[in-house]
Description:
GO terms for molecular function: methyltransferase activity. With 143 residues, the protein is mostly helical.
Amino acid sequence: MPPRTPEAQAFFHAVYAAVQEIPEGKVTTYGHIAKLIGTPQRPRQVGTALKHLPADTSLRYHHDNVPWQRVINGKGIISPRSQPEGARNQAASLQAEGVVVTTGALGELMVDFAEFGWFPRLLPSDEEAGVVPDDSNDDEESG
DNA sequence: AGGGTGACGGAGT
DNA sequence: AACTCCGCCACCC
């Protein structure tokens, strides 16, 4: 079942399309997807969209063509759901494509952003604002 | 039709 | 650095 309103449906589709751009073997965050699609204040709804990703392969976006497993939270942890199995399943999917998942002391399933993170520096909002990439960066994402 | 929940993240304490 | 609050809004009672 698709979402009720056309706006919500468009948002869901934007999320799915953005998630499809995450390269195999890489991960990004809910918040980053939200930024990429121009709604930086809606990371939570990105999670909602992925939660309701259809299994029906006859639809445009579904479980098999949207790499939902490549989206984790900003702390580098595979978000625990009401069902712990969901996170375990996500970890297995990531490991199957070469992502190293480590288990913390409390059972958190973690991924190292320094090695597996995908965070394109040029966002759609940057293009609209005419921002150009700057090579005199002050960040240090690599490790 | 109204209120609670939650695959998040940022600000404040 | 850990914890609480709060904005966000689609889904599910």
